[in-house]
Amino acid sequence: MTKVEVRSGACGFSVMITAEKGRDKKIHISIETECEMVKQMLPDISAVDMMTLFSGWLNNPVYKSASRQLKHVSCPVPSGILKAVEAEAGLAVPKEVSIIFLSRNSEK
Hints:
It is a single chain. This protein has 4 helices and 4 strands. It is α+β, with helices and mostly antiparallel strands. 28% of the residues lie in helices and 23% in strands. A hairpin with a 6-residue loop joins strand 1 (2-7) and strand 2. It has one domain (2-89): Sufe protein. Chain: A (Alpha-Beta Complex), CATH 3.90.1010.10. The model has no long low-confidence stretch (mean pLDDT 91). A 4-stranded antiparallel β-sheet has the order 1-2-3-4.
């Protein structure tokens, strides 16, 4: 089992993602969050064939669901889901990622 926490930023929501490889050769995903939009993704991605997750941007079930459910296109949650699945499937090492703002526009 692989667990990942995504702190989404300005919206204030945190998302706990759990990915677990099943005997059916699928990755089973669970999500804990207060974000209603992210919750609405779960029926689409609760059990996915791990290789379909790497079928490109347009065919990827996580990004397809995100395009239907999420209003904010820069939400980092879909990427976090895929990172958890990659690690659980043994296709990537579990390594932290980050987005760091080095400068900000000042208020006028």
